[in-house]
Amino acid sequence: MDEETRAFGQSFQRFLDQIVYPSSAVEGPGLVEKLEDHLGVDPLTLPVVVEQFPMYDHANLQVAVDVWLESTGRPFELVGIAGSGGRHQSLTEIVEMARRHRAFGLGPVDYVRVPTGVDEERECVRFGLYLAACGDDKVAVLMRGPHRHEGNAASLEVLATSTETTRTVLTDLRRLMAEHNIFRGQVISLEPESFEQTAGPIRFHPRPTLDRVDVILPAGVLELVERQVVGIARHRQILLDAGQHLKRGVLLYGPPGTGKTHTARYLISRLPDVTVVLLTGQGIGFVGAACGLARMLQPALVLLEDCDLVAEERSPRRGSNPLLFEVLDQMDGMAADADVAFVLTTNRPDLLEPALAQRPGRIDLAVEIELPSEMARTRLFSLYGPDLAADDAIRSLVVERTAGATASFLKELVRRATLVSAERGTDAPDRADVEAALDEMLGSSDRLARSLVGGGEG
User: pLDDT of 85-123, one tens digit each?
Assistant: First the structure.
């Protein structure tokens, strides 16, 4: 480049500085000066390493950064970046524009509150720059939280005086995210991100609290399921020492309303320290992410309800294969010593048989949850309406007239009898109220209406 061309370039740059950028110049302390003072070198001479994390891991990333800063035992500083459009620019671009045009400077840190449990939140940095030390080296770490209009991932951009330091920082943070993961021991599900086909925020659910007496199944059925799911978790070390695998799959099948979901909820209540990942609703599509969380947070349980609904559903990531195949492949991909239980429920086992036949060995136990027998209906009526069931005549009437009905039907019967009683101004239902509720629920000529309350075909 000759002198004349160089002079023109410098003149044109001054023109840009004076005409184009002054309106966006930031007053106050200089960002570049702050970084140079901290790092001891020109920040533009150092490489920036970027690492992205799923949207739902923002709080875990914040926890890891907080623990890492505390573990260093060294003072640190958290500063904000002032200036328009900073969230759209990389750290390198921000520093370069701050030097050339003072487009960015120091300002307040941007925070956001992120759910970390049922009715719990944590304040997390949404856009802020950490100035810290790693051993004898200095680092600057820019944290960005997810933003639906600017990318749904959380990220870190690390600027350090050596590549080894950058590698150490990121390795330590990934390890701390796993060790201090806020999802561990909780009941969670993945929610879809509003604007993209990716896993969005985590939804936290209260853990069910059910007693054994609340689960009414044929003799031996609950014990069989409980041993396979809870027993293996309880005796995991004995099984490992004996060379036996821990991963297991249980399929609960039978007509709607017979207690499959209720049984699954009971299993969850018996595993208070186990991470539970629910695959339900629109979150069913995030099988890979859900199973990845279960693998990392084991001991874990993955619950997929109504899995027949995905037996023929197509997954864009897997071409023409049913989404259920992805679930089964994830089960097969677990290490033998992975303490992860899969519980699947279905009303239509006939839809699953072809898929299960093509992927043998994923399901260790398949249990039919049948329509309640006479004895089971007696116990269910006593469970849902203990005061009503105390009357032998009412109990006999209900058990006799509810042959072929589901557990859900008996639960609704007690509620409806109570409502009939309330409408005529009495405190508690009597035989006439129960009969009226039975007539109403069983007397409909509409097959669909009977089916919806679990009353059978009639």
Answer: 777 888 999 999 888 888 888 999 999 999 999 999 999
Residue 210, token pair as written in the block: 């059910």
Would strands 48-53 and 154-160 be described as parallel, antiparallel, or unpaired?
Answer: antiparallel
N- to C-terminal Cα separation, the chain:
93
Same domain, 159 and 254: no
Q: Residue 29: pLDDT band by 50, 70, 90 thresholds?
A: low
pTM: 0.82
Taking alpha carbons only, the member of 193, 178, 160 closest to residue 50 is 160
- Cα distance between residue 25 and residue 168, in whole Å: 36
- Calculate Rg over the CA atoms of the chain: 30
Question: What is the rounded distance in angstroms from the CA atom of residue 296 to the CA atom of residue 278?
Answer: 15
- Report residue 258 as tokens: 């017979």
- CATH code of 385's domain: 1.10.8.60
> Considering the domain boundaries, does residue 7 fall inside one?
no
Residues 139 and 204 both lie in one domain: no
| Entry field: residues in the chain | 458
Write out the DSSP string of 14-36: HHIIIIISGGGPPPSSBHHHHHH
Where in the sequence is the domain holding 137, given as residue range(s)?
Answer: 21-179
Q: Are 218 and 140 members of one domain?
A: no
pLDDT of 25 strictly over 60: no
Contacts of 314 (CB under 8 A, 6+ apart): 320, 321, 322, 323
Nearest to 89 by CA among 31, 36, 41: 31
Taking the CB of residue 6, how many other CB atoms lie within 10 A of it? 10
